[in-house]
Design goal:
heterodimer; A: 205 residues; mainly alpha; 3-stranded antiparallel sheet; 3 strands; 77% helix; B: 114 residues; 54% helix
Chain lengths: 205, 114
Amino acid sequence: MPMKNLKNKLIQAGIYLSCIAFGYVITRFFEIPHFEISKTIDVSNVLTLIVTAWLAILITTVFEKQNNDHRVEKDLIITRVGNIYDIADSLQLESNSGRIHITEASSSLKRINTALNSIYRIVDKCHFNITADLKDRLKNCLADIRNTLTNTPSLTDEQLNSKDLPIEIKDSIIHFNKERVSQLEVKFDTLKDLLLELQIHINNK
Amino acid sequence: MEKIKISIRKDFSPTPGPRYIHEGKFSGELFRQQVLHPRVSEAVEKNIPFEVDLDGTAGYGTSFLEESFGGLIRIHGLPYEKIKSLMSLISIEEDYLIDDVNEYLKDAYEESKK
């Protein structure tokens, strides 16, 4: 590592020396019309030049580092949102089959909700925030999915024995009729759209 | 002051199930009959607060919670106002469940007035 640093410094020094030599050659052998190259240097101009160059390097380095840090933060959070998208996608696939275990449905929804809350907490510690409107829309969408997916109505025995209920549970497996499957599909698509919106929202910050 | 504590994970199951007993294991109906109703009745009779901890489970289906809490009023006829004043809920993992449970209690109360 120290050898590499030394090599880099030697290359830099070489570049600087080449620039100075190039400047000398220009003034010595070429005459540019309407321009006169002074043979003397004002010390205050040299100082101004050094300070300006130093500031330019400093500002570029600091901003670049800051931008890089923010980029990494955003990428990490966007990946976490992508993980939620994957859970939603697999839950949608399961529910599209018309049957899903009640524990699997409930636990997947809990994972989505807790992962989202964890993202909100992380974002609060970063340099940007997520709008309350987007949070509300996600919350309502998830509540809607949870109800459609796991809420079996409180029914009388007569109603329970009737055929083609939108949702019924046997041996802890939830069975949906075709209409309910279609409803779920639409709601999951809305959730996926909102998650994509969240990713874009974070990326644009 | 003495307080009755109920943890769904410890006192019932870490994997709560459907609404009714005939629908599968660890139903809301079973939880209400075995755990929630006896303890809440005791709290109401003795006028002592009770706390229900919803955390630590795999997650809840809507009907499990509705049957458990709404059933206290709908099936057992416990007084809504008393339950509201004595009950405290813990749900750090899924904070929205607190609003949901309060809603189920209110709906069951409104239904019982008809």
